[in-house]
Amino acid sequence: MKNLLATNILLPVLVTAFLILIILVIYFLTRKRGPDYVVKAPLMTKPEREYYNIFLSYFGQDYIILPQINLASVIDKVGKGYRSELFRNVDFGVFDYNYHPILLIEINDNTHFKKDRIERDKHVNEICKKAKLPLVTFWTKDGIDNKVIYRTLKKYL
After folding, report:
1. Is residue 24 included in any domain, yes or no?
2. Which domain holds residue 64?
3. What is the DSSP string of 12-36?
4. What's the confidence (pLDDT) of residue 3?
């Protein structure tokens, strides 16, 4: 009789504990976790580093040349509307020693022939023109010609 009473009490407790365990396992397996974070690839691609070294060799003594410049860091939007259109990066910014922007530089590869990139580039160009901040574009398909780079940038520096 004692065993029967213990079984009658113990069985519902064990079943309840088992159900709670299953619910907890399901909860932990299906709950939304926060995002994972990983370190990105190098800040500059190989062609960008090659251009950067050329920029430094010609103008590095007279100007500050920084990679991956966000438009919102150097251009402000005046008036109504969202600033989100300024949250785009250009490959390089050239600054005087007071960190005043002088010009922006884009290094375009074949990905810039895609429709979405063409639209993005067009919009970035329009923003820079309205802000009166020159944007110089070099195409990797043209190869790296030091003299062309020097002559092109010298117009602004």
Report:
1. no
2. 46-154
3. HHHHHHHHHHHHHHHHHHHSPPPPP
4. 59
